[in-house]
Amino acid sequence: MLSPQAVHNGEAPSPHHRILTPHFHSTVTLRKLRRFNSLILVFRLAAFAFSLASSVFMVTNSRGSDSPRWFDFDAFRFVFAANAIVALYSFFEMGVSVWEISTGGTLFPEILQVWFDFGHDQVFAYLLLSADSAGTALAKTLKGTDTCKASNSFCVQSDISVALGFAGFLFLGFSSLLSGFRVVCYIINGSRFHL
């Protein structure tokens, strides 16, 4: 293998010899990367917690045989399903974030991981937004009917579930912004990090 000095002096390296230079990061850079990845983990944890809470609130929203049940309304089934899917996705992404923080590498190849995170964050954020919007419209419609007059707790718990879903959307949106930033860094620098 030729020394870096020999290559610098104009000698052509053999195609069988490659000069391997280690990827260098300073201590400050490593701390910034760890902080950035920790921020993504916090947003994913919050999205998981709010989406899971929304799912639990919706699935437990049945008081008895004479009160309305959440699964009798299509919009509330959509709210439950979307929040459950986002909770599962966020749980998976929390594991990926912990993996990245602990090992410094990605679970999938870097280009696949960057686009996977960004694409899925976008899709699931819009899924959650549309489900919670449908749930909001139904909850508003139910307020003027006998359903909420007969069983006010059903309507209150539905409102809480939808509100928790919107909070989950907010944190998933923040995660999407950070994963979009990583995509742009990858396009510009060839690395998911801006440093």
Automatic annotation (TrEMBL):
**Where is it located?**
Cell membrane
What organism does this protein naturally occur in? Answer: Herrania umbratica
* Domain Casparian strip membrane protein: residue ranges: 36-171
What residue ranges are annotated as transmembrane?
39-59, 71-92, 162-188
Could you read off the lineage of the organism from its UniProt record? Eukaryota, Viridiplantae, Streptophyta, Embryophyta, Tracheophyta
The way it spans or sits in the membrane comes to: Multi-pass membrane protein
Protein family according to the UniProt entry: Belongs to the Casparian strip membrane proteins (CASP) family.
Q: Which residues form the signal peptide?
A: none
Which Gene Ontology cellular component annotation is one that this UniProt entry carries? Answer: plasma membrane
Which of UniProt's keywords are assigned here?
Answer: Cell membrane, Membrane, Transmembrane, Transmembrane helix
InterPro entries hit by this protein: CASP_dom (IPR006702)
Q: Which domain of life is it from?
A: Eukaryota
Report quaternary structure and partners. Homodimer and heterodimers.
One Pfam family name is CASP_dom
Listed name of the protein: CASP-like protein
